[in-house]
Amino acid sequence: MTNELTANSDSIQFILNDDSLNSEVKRIGKKILNSERITTDEGLYLYENGSLGFLGSLANFIREKKNGDAVFFNRNFHIEPTNKCVFACNFCSYSRLIQQENESWELSHEQMMDIVRKYDGDPVTEVHIVGGVHPKMNLDFFCNLIREIKKHRSDLHVKAFTAVELEYMFRKAKVSIVEGMQKLKDAGMDSMPGGGAEIFDEEIRSKICNDKASSDEWLAIHETAHKLGIPSNATMLYGHIENYAHRIDHMNRLRELQDRTNGFNTFIPLKFRNGDNEMSNVKESTIVEDMKCYAMSRIFLDNFNHIKAYWPMIGRTNAQLLLNFGVDDIDGTIDDTTKIYAMAGAEEQNPTMNTRELVDLILAVNRRPIERDTLYKPIRDFILNPFEKEKMKKHI
Ligand code: V47
Ligand code: SF4
User: Fold this and answer.
1) Is 321 within 8 Å of 287 (Cβ atoms)?
2) Nearest Cα to Cα of residue 129 among 159, 105, 152, 109
3) Strand partners, 126
4) What is the pLDDT of residues 168-210, one digit of tens each?
5) What is the rounded CA–CA span in Å between residue 315 and residue 3?
6) Which among 91, 232, 246, 314 could bridge 201 via Cys, Cβ 3.0 to 4.6 Å?
7) DSSP secondary structure letters along 177-237
8) Confidence at residue 14, expressed as pLDDT on a 0 to 100 scale
C-alpha cells in the first residue's frame, strides 16, 4: 500500500491514544477497530462528534480490511425508457423539465433494442435500465424487452427497475410482488439497481416524494427479490431536508434487511442536486459533508461489502477523494447514456469515460483498478495486467 492517506490500525490506535479525543468517540472507535457492530445511538453519536479525519481513518480501515486497495468499476451503459412519470417527487428534475419545456421522451421497444445493438462487439457487461414511471410501459412490455435483449445478447447482465417502478408495474398488472418478480426473473432480469429508496423516514419521505412506493414497500420488494435469488443495490438520497438521525435510521433499516437476506451488492449514497427541480431552494451539501456521509456509510453498514460513489453525480475528482473515505467502487463507463443527473445540475453534463480514463483516474490516487462484473466477480486487475506501456504513454 503506497497511498499516503492510507490509514492502518496502527495509525488509528495512535489517534485513539490522543488524550484530547472525546472518551465516547474513543470507545466507539475501539469497537469499530475490533470489528464489533455499533448501535444506531453510537452511529449517531459518532456522526455528530467525530472529526472528518477520524471518520475517514475508520472508514478507510474498514474499506481496506474488506477490499484492500481495490477500486472496482464495470463497463456498462444505461437505457432510460422515458422521463414521463406518474409521480411528482419534489427533488426530481424529470417532471419539472417536462412541464416547463415539454422536453419529454418515450422510447419504443425498437429504439431501446437499437441502443443495445449499438454495443454489439463492445465488451460491455451490463445494461442498466431505469426511467420514469410510465402508465403504458407495463410489466408485459418490459418482460418482452428483457427477453429480446437476452435473445440478442445472452451474456449481457440486465440490471433493471427501481422498486418504485416495480411497485407500480405490479399494482397495475394486479400481481403480487412474488409473482411479478418471478415473471421478470423468468424473462431474464438478473439484478436490480438501488434507486427509489430516497429516505425511509416516513415524515421526510412524505415531504419529498409523497405519492410513490412507501419505505416498507421498497424494502419488501428488495426482500422478495433477494429471496428469489435476484440481488440488488441500495441507495440513500442525502443532503436535502433530512438530518443525521434520518440517515442512520435509513441505513439501519438496510442493515437489518441485509442481515436477513445478504442480497445487497453495494450501497450508494446519492448527493441531492438542486438544479431545475421543486427543491432548487435547498442548498446542496458541501464536499466535507459528502465525505462524512460516505465515511459513516462505510462504518455503519458492516454487512455491506461495497460502497459506491456514482461518479457522474459526484464528479470525477470528488470520486477520487472518496476512495479514501470508505468507497471502493465508482460504477462504470456509462457512455453518456444517462440524463437524470445532468438535468439536476450534476458536475458531469455528458458522463462518459472509457476504460483507460477510469483506470487512470484510479491509478492517479495509487489504488488498484479492477474491472468487475455486476456481481463483483473480477474481470481484470489492471496492476497485474496493465495496458501496454506505449499505448499508456500515448494516452498520458
Ligand atoms: O431514486 C433523482 C436519484 C435515483 C435527483 O444501483 C437524484 O447501481 C440527486 O438509483 N439529485 C435513481 N439524486 C438513480 C439510481 C442509481 C444511479 C446509479 C447507479 C445505481 C445502481 C442506481 O436518482 C432516484 C433518486 O434517488 N435522484 N433526482 C437529484 N435531483
Ligand atoms: Fe418519477 Fe423517479 Fe422522478 Fe420520482 S424520482 S418523479 S418516481 S422519475
Assistant:
1) yes
2) 159
3) 76, 157
4) 999 999 999 999 999 999 999 999 999 999 999 999 999 999 9
5) 21
6) 246
7) HHHHHHHHHHHT--BB--TT-S---HHHHHHH-TTS--HHHHHHHHHHHHHTT--EEEEEE
8) 77
- Give me ligand 1 centre to Cα 391, in Å: 35
Q: Which three cell numbers stand for residue 188?
A: 431474464
Q: Between helices 109-118 and 139-152, what is the axis angle to 10°? A: 30
For domain 70-387, the question of CATH label 3.40.50.2300 is answered with no
User: DSSP labels for 69-95?
Assistant: TEEEEE-EEEE--BS--S---TT-HHH
103 membership: H or E segment, kind and range: none
Show me where the domains of the chain are located: 2-67, 70-387
Residue nearest to atom 5 of ligand 2 (CA): 92
Supply the pLDDT for residue 292.
98
Q: Is 349 helix (H, G, I), strand (E, B) or coil?
A: coil
* Half-sphere exposure in the Cβ direction for 39 (13 Å, CA): 4
Q: What one-letter code names the amino acid at 32?
A: I
- Close Cβ partners of 309 (under 8 Å, ≥ 6 residues apart): 268, 269, 294, 318, 319, 322, 323, 327, 329, 330, 331
Q: Give the model's confidence band at 5: pLDDT under 50 very low, under 70 low, under 90 confident, else very high.
A: very low
CB-count exposure of residue 359 (10 Å: 0-12, 13-18, 19+): buried
Ligand 2 pocket, 212 CB below 6 A?
A: yes
Can you give the length of the chain in residues?
396
Residue 369 CA to ligand 2 center (angstroms) comes to 33
Please tell me the number of the ligand nearest to residue 162's CA.
1
Number of H helices, E strands in the chain: 18, 10
Torsion of CA 205, 207, 208, 209, to 10 degrees: 60
pLDDT in tens, 344-367: 555 555 657 888 889 999 999 999
Would you call 203 exposed, middle or buried from its count of C-beta atoms within 10 A (0-12, 13-18, 19+)?
exposed
Alpha carbon nearest to ligand 1 atom 27, residue = 92
Residues contacting residue 257 through CB under 8 Å, at least 6 positions apart:
219, 222, 223, 226, 264
Taking the alpha carbons at both ends of the chain, their separation in whole angstroms is 23
